[in-house]
């Protein structure tokens, strides 16, 4: 008998979770029993993310050992991220203007959700300027950054440490071997944790559906359909075109990452799949130095799905209130989103926080977010998938740009994946 693959196991967990959540809608017992299972799974993933990123980056950077090469890679990566996220914002604005998801919706039919926690978070981070964000990349205490999971300072320290290991030559080999061992051991641990994924997904989805109920989607179905349709368009057309430009196919990414995409969709968390995405992109022909730098950095600077959604949701709320934004106001919105989406990366509920920080600048009532907060989890699931595909593709683009992409390794890996799924 053929063993059921992980993707199918996660999908079964997802469907069973929806069924259980729908049957026991409004019953607090669901959260009482299932939430701990979901929390344990998320904690297991968070436990391994930082050791993998640190070890992989140190090994990758030490093997490159050239600060000029790394500086060039960093510069190219930021330019690419900025171009793609700007395209995502433009796509979001265009779709909202063409399809008008917020026009004609009776606001009285919508339920309001408390957004005070998001407002408090926004007030905390809103005074952060772009300069402060750049300053905060340099950690004052690396152990503090490690304990809080603040990714950008961790990446900065790991790069500097990797360069230091390379600079001391023979003496650094022992250190390099140690981190190579840590990296391999953590990838083994990741594979063991992934066996628990279907249970984690079942629990997290069950709790979500039992809280908001399937019927809460009906009044906002136009927004949900528009968001999902736009995300699909962005992946197939925009990211598909980028993939073609660098000589790969977007379907190959979806085939390679099918387990991770179902998991990211179910948990609404890019972090849950970071270790496996890095591992698979390495197998797909990207060098360790590039995957270990580009993918974690992308989690702060290249959230394509999130920025697309923010643009679409901002116009949706304006349409809900009957506010007609001029071209100049929409350009202003685009520029503000370009800055705010980078300035507060890593903040919990980042898409909501960015919207709260942005809407006021173009005179859209922030109270409108209370109407979509209840279904934000459903929308978050879609944008998380786009974020994962966008960051995976970025690793290939940078590898190609640097002339370090291994075509033979990629072809071989695709053949392996195809044989397994046959």
Automatic annotation (TrEMBL):
GO terms for biological process: dicarboxylic acid transport. One of its GO terms (molecular function) is symporter activity. It is found in: Cell membrane. The keyword Cell membrane applies. PROSITE patterns: NA_DICARBOXYL_SYMP_1, NA_DICARBOXYL_SYMP_2. Its main location: membrane. Keywords: Cell membrane, Membrane, Symport, Transmembrane, Transmembrane helix, Transport. The chain crosses the membrane at residues 7-25, 45-65, 77-99, 151-169, 196-218, 224-246, 307-327, 334-357. GO terms for cellular component: plasma membrane. It comes from the Bacteria. The keyword Transmembrane helix applies. Gene3D superfamilies: Sodium:dicarboxylate symporter. It is a multi-pass membrane protein. Homotrimer. This carrier protein is part of the Na(+)-dependent, binding-protein-independent glutamate-aspartate transport system. This is Proton/sodium-glutamate symport protein. It comes from Anoxybacteroides rupiense.
